[in-house]
Amino acid sequence: MYDVVILGGGPSGLAAGVYAARSNLRTVIVEKGLPGGQMQNTLEVENYPGFLEIIGPELSEKMHQHATHFGVEWQQGEVESVDMDGLEKTVHLVGGEILVGKAIIIATGAQPRYLGVPGEREFSGRGVSYCATCDGAFFRNKKVVVVGGGDSALEEGTFLTKFAASVTIIHRRGELRAQPILQDRAFNNEKIDFIWNTQVTDIVGDGVVKSVKLANTETGEESTLDTDGVFIYVGFLPNTEYLKGSSILNNEGYVVTDGKMATEIPGIFAAGDIRDTPLRQIITATSDGAIAAMSAYHYTETLD
User: Fold this and answer.
1) In the annotation, is 3 catalytic?
2) CATH class of 128-232
3) Among residues 83, 85, 135, 151, which one is catalytic?
4) In the prediction, which pLDDT does 242 show?
5) CATH code for 2-111+236-301?
């Protein structure tokens, strides 16, 4: 029996672990991948207070060490389902293992959203990627396309210029959604070009990606652009399949909480990118985790 079972070992889950363990709660984090979640795929983090610049894997390891230092247990596994009724919450892992806790903090984050066009799945790993820091080096001196107009698209597009001969950012609108500082960097980078009001309709290749088919969102005009790689950043989908049908999810699959990170079910809390929240950054995820842990602490106190 744990006091708190934390689902997900990204920044929100790790921060929750630190605060829960320091509150003398027996705490376990369940994570199917490496500590840090998406931080593992981020080369440079420059907006986390206290670090002018730190690579994602290093920050992940520091957070993991911090949590385990205070006694947080680390459980490698994938969540299959959660029984949230009653005072004892039960987490079922793939493979049959079961964890029981007084409170649960859901922090399984989100994953990249697919474009859903022909060729995307076929060429995944053969020219189609969702992680520039993972695959950028494979495109040295080649032409690549970045699809999207938010922070991730511009951050990863700028990173790709360290390897690629050219980067073309394709955005379905006429203006970007990214932070102004990221826009300035991209506009001032001589390796980056933009194609506006355009969407990718097909990814074409022969074993590997060779080109993309495009359609103008205003005129409908179609065209083809030769490219060696397609990096896709068009948003995220919450990792809540194991909660499908639950009343704590909104129509998009994100967990709905109040300001204390509590859901409508007593003892069930959520933190980080899994929440219905206006900002998804490392700093907001860690903040969510801290609040969720302290809310879980106060909840468990009511059970004694």
Assistant:
1) no
2) alpha beta
3) 135
4) 96
5) 3.50.50.60
